[in-house]
UniProtKB/TrEMBL annotation:
PROSITE patterns: PROKAR_LIPOPROTEIN. It comes from Pontibacter ummariensis. It comes from the Bacteria. This is Uncharacterized protein.
Amino acid sequence: MRVNKLTALLLSLAFLGCNKDKDPTPSPKVEVKDITFNFRLDPMPAATEKFELIVSQKDGEVLLDTLLAPRTAHALSLKSADDKFNITTIYSDPATNKYALRTYIQVNPDNWHIDENISYSEWGETERATIHYTNAPYWDGIQFTGKQGGTFGATYSGGSIILKYQRLLPTDLTYLLLPESGKYIFAEITSPETHVDFSHASTAVKRRYTKPAGATDFISILFGYTKAGDYRKTMTLTLSGPGSDYDLQFPTTMIEEFETRLLYTDAEGYRHTYVHNGATVPTEMPFIAKSDFTVTKYEANDFQIKFGENKPNSYTMVWNSEDTNLDGKWNIYLSAAETAFKPKDFLEKLNAKSLKGKSLAGLSLNSLTSYQAKDYTHQSMQDYYNTPELYLKKALREYRTIQRYY
């Protein structure tokens, strides 16, 4: 029997339609999870009694908005399909009414303890002391430090350097370097008046670094620690611009760990800082001639940035608002994957309780700093700075920052 072609076509289409209804392609199922994390913020003004914490998704949806007590660990929970979030904290200084805002873009904040007053140093009691360095050459420049730093005054008379400073009690350790002669001496100070024979001084090691073309305003800073891993007492071994034949001079005795900081401004006006922590002073530093970023737009609601070959792990923007309605500073922490941002829209979408009725009309970019460290990511960089146990151990051993003001 012959079947009409039109009838066959209609039957075929009907069959396909039935199959489509019976076997639809399943859409991916979004799994909403229970998320818990611990969080603590210690604001700089001790009188701050509360801060606002806002957790939002990448799409801007607010998942949590709550007022919390500072200097206390909080166990928090929310529901989301995301693993990383935008974390914003807001508080105002009760003395000045200035607002302080922080926003971390796409991070996991679990076990963060943001301490705005964190410090390596422990300060001890001191007293006025005088050191007589006998058999010393006349000096043209001097580098001196005790274990607690501070100011000093020095004069030269009859072959002796007479130096006055505040010594740490009960026992201090001092370091004197005469850069011109390249000689240094350590001395243990146990009384208000001490005589030290400088003829026993040792010869310092010199370092000179090859700088990129166009680099200016070079500064070298060298800190020393008499016990590796103990950063409570810092001795400044070098703090100067370059000398005639060196950038750094440093001792070969007494110091178990060095922290080297080298800074310069590149030809386009970006300020570079290179940091190295270790048992030795590096012979070379990984300088780069140009900034690793270029900001192409920095309007209040249109920020755009480009990165070069030496891409950073993370960067921080500081936005100021000096409007009479909202006087404050906003730090925003982002990964190099984020090349565009709308600050005004972002803040307005949060609809923060603390900023109710406040205008964002005066928002402007103040500065931007990039961070680069080998084997670090945006997440691990923020973990480092917001975990006091890591920060106080200087677990980040070598890194660079590049900064530009706008």
